[in-house]
Design the sequence.
């Protein structure tokens, strides 16, 4: 939930920030409105992005090649832990 200032009334209101939902199942990975089929996912890995200026890891994502393009699905900030998401990717990928 984010606190934003309302331009019309000069007050504050609460709004929900909508995050994409990730679905991991035996068919593939669905993110937003994109379905990535397991049979067409290659070079799948989990990566962390490092910010040199802040000297810390800032994001974790799944990285893979799909139809010749490199794709990234960010997996931080959800109600499930990063470790749990990686676990289910591994379980369904190896079926």
Sequence:
């Amino acid at each position: 939930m984010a606190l934003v200032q309302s331009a019309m009334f000069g007050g504050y209101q609460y709004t929900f920030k909508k995050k994409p939902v990730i679905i991991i199942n035996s068919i593939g990975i669905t993110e937003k409105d994109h379905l990535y089929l397991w049979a067409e996912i290659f070079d799948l890995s989990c990566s962390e992005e490092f910010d040199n200026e802040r000297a810390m890891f800032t994001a974790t994502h799944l990285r893979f090649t799909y139809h010749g393009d490199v794709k990234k699905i960010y997996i931080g900030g959800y109600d499930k832990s990063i470790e749990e998401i990686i676990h289910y990717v591994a379980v369904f990928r190896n079926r």
